[in-house]
User: Which sequence fits this backbone?
C-alpha cells in the first residue's frame, strides 16, 4: 500500500483530463474490444441432407469454425445417399492473414496505449526532456493511425468473404448428395455475425481516435512550438513598430520646418524675411 501511495503522490493524474491522456485511455479500451471480438469468435452453421433413402439422411449437420478463419481446414461429414456411406467435406478459403493482422495491430495498439498512459502520468519530465518523447509519440501515433485504417479495411473485406464462404446455401453446393435432384438439402441456420461486425466497427473507431490524436500529440513536439514562435515573431515586430509611430511623429513635428501650420500662425517672422515689406519701407 505504501508503494501505491507513493506512486499516486508522484504521478500527475491531471493529464487524464486533457485530450492527450483521455484519448489514450479510450484507445487502450477500444483496442481491447477490437481484438477480443475478433480473436475470440466461434460460429456454427447447420445444414440438412434428406436422402431418398431415409436411413442415409442426416437432417442436422453442424459445421463449426472460428478465428483465425482457415476455412480450408474445417471439415464435416455428410451422407452420400448411397447406402450408409459418408464423405468428408471441407470448406473453402483462408482468411487468416487479414484476421491475424487485425488482431496483431489491436494488441500492439493496446500495449502502446497502456505504456504511453503510464509515461504521461508518472514520467512527464522524462517524456518532455530534449523533445524526444513527444517526437517518438507523434511518429508512433501516425504509424498506428495508418495501420488501423489498413487492417480494418482488410478485415472488413475478409469478413465479407467469410460470410459468403460459410453461407449455408453455398456450403450445400460442396456436398455431392445435394447435386442429385432426388435428394433434398436445406439450411437450418447460419452463423451469427454480430461479434465480427462489432470488431470491424471498433477497428474504424480506433482509426478515428488515433488519427484525431495526431494533432494533440503534435502540439507537444518542438515542431509545433517552433512554428508558433515563427508565426508570433513578425506580428510582435509589427506591433512594436506601430507603438513607436506616435513618438516618431511627435519628434518630427518638433523640428519646425515641417509644421507649416505653426509657421502660418506667426506673421511677424514672415514680414521680417519677405521682400514686399522691404520694398514698402524704401518707398
Assistant:
Amino acid at each position: 500500500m505504501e508503494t501505491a501511495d507513493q506512486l499516486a503522490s508522484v504521478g500527475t493524474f491531471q493529464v487524464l483530463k486533457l485530450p492527450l491522456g483521455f484519448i489514450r485511455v479510450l484507445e487502450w479500451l477500444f483496442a481491447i474490444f477490437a481484438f477480443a471480438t475478433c480473436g475470440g469468435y466461434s460460429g456454427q452453421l447447420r445444414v440438412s441432407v434428406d436422402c431418398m433413402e431415409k436411413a442415409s439422411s442426416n437432417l442436422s449437420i453442424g459445421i463449426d469454425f472460428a478465428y483465425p478463419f482457415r476455412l480450408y481446414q474445417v471439415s464435416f461429414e455428410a451422407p452420400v445417399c448411397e447406402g450408409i456411406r459418408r464423405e468428408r467435406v471441407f470448406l473453402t478459403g483462408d482468411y487468416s492473414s487479414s484476421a491475424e493482422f487485425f488482431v496483431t495491430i489491436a494488441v500492439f495498439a493496446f500495449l502502446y496505449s497502456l505504456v504511453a498512459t503510464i509515461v504521461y502520468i508518472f514520467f512527464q519530465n522524462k517524456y518532455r526532456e530534449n523533445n524526444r518523447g513527444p517526437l517518438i509519440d507523434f511518429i508512433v501515433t501516425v504509424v498506428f493511425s495508418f495501420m488501423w485504417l489498413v487492417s480494418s479495411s482488410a478485415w472488413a473485406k475478409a469478413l465479407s468473404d467469410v460470410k459468403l464462404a460459410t453461407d449455408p446455401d453455398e456450403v450445400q453446393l460442396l456436398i455431392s448428395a445435394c447435386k442429385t435432384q432426388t435428394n433434398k438439402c436445406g439450411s437450418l441456420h447460419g452463423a451469427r455475425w454480430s461479434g465480427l461486425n462489432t470488431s470491424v466497427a471498433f477497428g474504424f473507431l480506433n482509426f478515428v481516435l488515433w488519427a484525431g490524436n495526431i494533432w494533440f500529440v503534435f502540439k507537444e513536439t518542438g515542431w509545433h512550438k517552433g512554428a508558433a514562435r515563427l508565426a508570433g515573431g513578425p506580428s510582435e515586430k509589427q506591433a512594436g513598430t506601430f507603438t513607436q509611430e506616435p513618438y516618431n511623429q511627435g519628434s518630427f513635428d518638433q523640428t519646425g520646418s515641417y509644421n507649416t501650420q505653426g509657421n502660418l500662425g506667426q506673421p511677424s517672422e514672415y514680414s521680417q524675411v519677405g521682400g514686399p515689406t522691404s520694398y514698402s519701407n524704401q518707398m
Notes: Strands lie at 42-50, 58-66, 75-79, 86-90, 184-189. The radius of gyration is 40 Å. Confidence is low (pLDDT under 50) at residues 1-8, 235-283. Residues 28 and 110 are 5 Å apart (CA to CA).
